[in-house]
Amino acid sequence: MTARRRPRRATSRRAFSMIETLLALTISAMLLTASLAALDASYKQYTSTTESASTHVVSRIVMHRLLAMVRTGVEFGPFPADVYDPAQNPVVSDFIEFRAERDIAAGVNRVTRVELRPGPNPGDPGELWYVLVDTDPMNPAILEERPLIRGVVQAAFILNYNRDSYLLDKATIDLTIAPNDSQDLRLGALGDPSTPQTIRLVASAAPRQGL
């Protein structure tokens, strides 16, 4: 008597369960998020460094130009009401001006003025502007004006006047400048997002007229 062979059952392959699939997707999403966060931080740090370096170069150029103006300028302002008063001399101001050109016969009297103009909103960085003014009392006019540098957080012109000659002895320029788009980068020197980077330049010069 021949024994009957039982038919073999097809072995079923076990697939991933729903829990395993969700767990794998969660781990993949976490790894992808961490990678993108690191890439974003690296890109922002690179952009911040580039902006800071560019602003630093431009700031130095502007500072050298301002010092050259001081060395070659005459009849500076603002002038204190009492040059002997220590509370008024030196003068601390957000602008400096000096005579650029004078021709009495032709009636030409032009004054160069460098001033800090505030930003559009309170607390926003301002701009340092160059202004050439014709001070003709009959027809005063602005002949030329243009921005020298943007993102100026603070600008101070400290003018020391001689008490005997009433001439300017020394001018000190103190500039604090924020890199462009620093309000979006918000990456400080130690990675603190609440500490924006700034550049501070301080320099002094004496007019050659008093030498």
**Sequence of secondary-structure elements:** HEEEEEEEHE
How much helix, percentage-wise, in residues? 25-40%
The low-pLDDT segments are 181-195
N- and C-termini, Cα separation: 133 Å
3D shape = rod-shaped
Radius of gyration, rounded? 33 Å
Report the structural category: alpha+beta
Number of separate domains: 1
Extended strand count: 8
If you average the pLDDT, what whole number results?
80
Q: How does this model look, in words?
A:
With 211 residues, the chain is α+β, with helices and mostly antiparallel strands. It has one domain (32-185, 193-205). It is built from two helices and eight strands, in the order H-E-E-E-E-E-E-E-H-E. It has helices at 18-72, 182-185, and strands at 74-77, 91-93, 95-103, 108-117, 126-134, 141-161, 168-177, 199-205. Strands 1, 2, 3, 4, 5, 6, 7 and 8 form an eight-stranded antiparallel sheet that branches. The radius of gyration is 33 Å and the shape is rod-shaped.
Keywords:
single chain, about 210 residues, about 35% strand, alpha+beta
Helix-strand blueprint:
Blueprint: H1 18-72, E1 74-77, E2 91-93, E3 95-103, E4 108-117, E5 126-134, E6 141-161, E7 168-177, H2 182-185, E8 199-205
